[in-house]
Automatic annotation (TrEMBL):
Primary localization: membrane
Native source species: Caulobacter segnis
Transmembrane intervals: 21-41
Lineage: Bacteria, Pseudomonadati, Pseudomonadota, Alphaproteobacteria, Caulobacterales
Any one GO cellular component localisation term in the record: membrane
InterPro entries cross-referenced by the UniProt entry: Uncharacterised_pept_Zn_put
Protein name as annotated: Flagellar biosynthesis protein FlgM
Length: 282
């Protein structure tokens, strides 16, 4: 993957220099969030937020906004900006304005969010309440080490999956999933997660062209993305952590499902192909 020449918009809120805040203030909330989010990347914070609501809210933190000077941070900036380049015209065709996430927040260990205390053990996540993506870059080591998902494109897939949750928030898909959940239908959150995977595929399909060639994604990159999607499937994660698969507790989809929906988005390049809510089978 080539991204170094990609445009950046400086929509980064850098809290990495701040100490971990929120654990003391977050109290029980922090513990609950961490327990639920453990090992799962991109957990839908609403699931955890429902639990955390009523518990003590952590202090809101503000990091420095704008351009960052380190390579890891700049990579995130490029991917966020690239998602804008891809989603803006897609929204425009529907007569809707694409508003980017409020910020991608880089933090270490723990931080206050609009959805309760974020902790790095939760993995990257999107908070719809403040429309920010939260990311502790130590996750990249886990992604390569524990999950065995190598390559920069695997990281880009993760970031774009989270921005996919923002796209869902703009389009109201999260409300749709909540209604499914309220009716007691299974897999509302799985459908949401697989749609975010599909949106990450849509981003990958258009990123090169939308960047004017500043970003180059090749076939082996897409394979890395599929590898990452497989590595973070619920079944694979469960086998690693418990030695068995318990389908009832799936929230993100199996490895096969995640690969299928990412591929679908990539091959069709059209978000209307990502309607996991109407799909008869996932
Ligand atoms: Zn997700």
């Amino acid at each position: 993957m080539e991204w170094e020449g990609g445009r950046r918009s400086g929509n980064i809120e850098d809290r990495r220099g701040l100490g971990p805040v929120g654990i003391a203030g977050g109290g029980i909330g922090a513990v609950v969030l961490a327990a639920i989010g453990y090992f799962v990347f991109g957990i839908d914070p609403r699931t955890t937020m429902d639990v955390a609501q009523g518990l003590q809210q952590p202090a809101q933190q503000q990091g420095a906004r704008g351009e960052v000077s380190d390579r890891d941070g700049q990579f995130i900036d490029v991917i966020e900006t690239s998602n804008r380049e891809v989603w803006t015209p897609i929204f425009q065709r529907e007569g809707v304005e694409y508003r980017p996430p409020e910020a991608i927040v880089l933090y270490k260990e723990a931080t206050g969010t609009g959805c309760g205390t974020g902790q790095s053990a939760m993995g990257p996540f999107y908070c719809p309440a403040d429309q920010k993506v939260y990311l502790d870059l130590s996750f990249w080591r886990e992604l390569e080490g524990r999950f065995g998902a190598k390559g920069e494109f695997a990281r880009a897939y993760v970031v774009s999956h989270e921005i996919g949750h923002h796209v869902q928030h703009l389009l109201g898909a999260d409300q749709q999933a909540r209604r499914l959940g309220a009716r007691g239908q299974e897999s509302g959150s799985v459908r949401l997660e697989l749609q975010a995977d599909c949106y990450a595929g849509v981003w990958a399909a258009h990123a090169g062209e939308a960047s004017g060639g500043r970003i180059v994604i090749n076939r082996s990159d897409v394979q890395d993305g599929l590898g990452a999607a497989a590595a973070v499937g619920d079944d694979t994660l469960q086998k690693q952590t418990q030695g068995q698969v318990v389908p009832d507790s799936f929230t993100h989809g199996t490895s096969a499902q995640r690969m299928r929906w990412f591929s679908r988005g990539y091959e069709q390049g059209d978000p209307s192909a990502c309607d996991t809510f109407s799909a008869a089978s996932l």
